[in-house]
Amino acid sequence: MLQSVFNLAGGAVGTVLGAANGLAELAYAATSDATTVAPGRVHVPLRGVHTSDAAVAAAVEEQLAEHPAVCRAEVNAALGHVMVEFDPDLLPVSEALDLVADVEQENGLSSEPYTRQEHPGNARRALQEAALLGIHTAALVYTTVGRAVPAAPVALPASVLALIDASPRLRGYVARAVGEPAADALLSTGAALSNGLGKRPLGLLVDACQRFVLYQESQARRRAWAVWEDALADHEGAHRAMPRPVGPRPAPIPPGPVEKVADLTPLAALGGAAALLAATRSVPLATTALALGAPKAARSGREGFAAQLGRDAAAKGTLVLDRNVLRRLDRVDTVVLDEDVLLTGRQAVDDVVPLAEEPGSGLSELVERAHDLVDLRRPLRARTNEGWSVEPAEPEPAGRLGEVAASLGRRSSTVLTLRRGSEPVAVIGISPALDPFAESVVAAASRAGLVLVGGPRALSRRLELDGAVPGGATLTDSVRALQTGGHVVAVVSRNHRTALVAADVGIGVVGPGKPPPWTADVLTRTAGEVCLLLDAIGVAQQISHRSAQLAVGGSGLGGLLAVLGPPTGAAGRAAIPVHTAALVALGLGTWSGISLARRPGPIPADRTPWHAMSARAVLQSLHSARTGLSEHESHLRQRDRPAIDEQHDVGITKASLEELANPLTPALAAGAGVSAATGSILDPLLITTVLAVNALIGGVQRVGAQRALRTLRKSSAARVHVRRGESDVELRADQLVEGDVIRLQAGDAVPADSRVLTGHDLEIDESSLTGESVPVAKSNRATSARAIADRNSMLYEGTVVAVGRTDAVVVATGDRTEAGRAMRQNGEQAPPTGVEIRLRKLTARALPISIGAGVVLVVSDLLRRRPAGIALTRAVSLAVAAVPEGLPFVATVAELAAARRLSARGALVRNPSTIEALGRVNVLCFDKTGTLTEGRISLRQVSDGTDTVSVDEPLRPDLQDVIATAVRASPFRADPHQVTHQTDRAVLRGARTLGVSAENGHAVVEQLDELPFESRRAYHATLWRGRTGTRISLKGAPEVVLPLCSARRRNGETQPLDERTRAAIDEEVHRLALQGHRVLAVAQRRIADRTQLTEDDVTELEFRGLVALVDPVRPTAAQSVATLRAAGVEIAMITGDHPSTAQSIASELDALNGRTVMTGAELEELTDSQLVEALPRAAVFARVTPAQKARIVQVYQQRGLAVAVTGDGTNDAPAIRLADVGIALGARATAAAREAADVVVTDDRIETITDAIVEGRGMWTSVRDALSILLGGNLGEIAYTLATGIAGSNGGLNARQLLLINLLTDVLPAMAVAVRPPADATPEQLLAEGPEQSLGGALTRGIQVRAAITATSAGIAWLLARPVSTAGQASTTGLVALVGAQLGQTLAVRGRTPLVAAAVAGSMVLLAVAVQVPGVSRVVGSRPLLPHQWAIALTAAVGATGAQLLAQRLLTRV
Question: The Cation-transporting P-type ATPase C-terminal domain covers which part of the protein (predicted)?
Answer without folding.
Answer: 1293-1441
